[in-house]
Amino acid sequence: MIELLTFSILSIELFSLIFRTQPPFIDWVIGMSNDPNAPWVYSVSYGEVEQQVPSTTTSRFNTEIQKMAVRGITVLVSSG
């Protein structure tokens, strides 16, 4: 399920993603790191136990986040 809310006054888009399969976020982060028109700031709230995510998935996620950082994109991630 994907929801999109746009706040025109502040130019903010809010996406709510519910993943039904593992690995979560991989398709999203790959898409955003390859999007030439990606927003400059992302805030992600994540509710998965990181130790249960395969290390290859974590490594790929980190690589894609680094690619975004090189472009000047900020990604804030929290869990809990």
Salient structural properties:
80 residues; alpha+beta; two-stranded antiparallel ribbon; two-stranded parallel ribbon; 4 strands
What does this structure look like?
The protein is α+β, with helices and mostly antiparallel strands. The protein has one domain (21-79). 31% of the residues lie in helices and 30% in strands. The chain has helices spanning 26-34, 55-70, and strands at 2-7, 12-17, 41-46, 74-79. The strands form 2 sheets. Strands 1-2 form a two-stranded antiparallel ribbon.
Q: Ranges with pLDDT <50 over ≥5 residues?
A: 1-8
Radius of gyration: 13 Å
Multimerization state: single chain
Strand content: 25-35%
Largest sheet: 2 strands, antiparallel
Spatial strand arrangement across the major sheet: 1-2
Helix content: 25-40%
Q: Which outline best applies?
A: globular
The separation of the N and C termini measures 21 Å
Strand/helix succession: EEHEHE
Secondary structure tally: strands? 4
In DSSP terms (H or I, runs of 4 or more residues), the helix count works out at 2
Structural class: alpha+beta
Number of domains: 1
Q: Estimate the mean pLDDT confidence.
A: 75
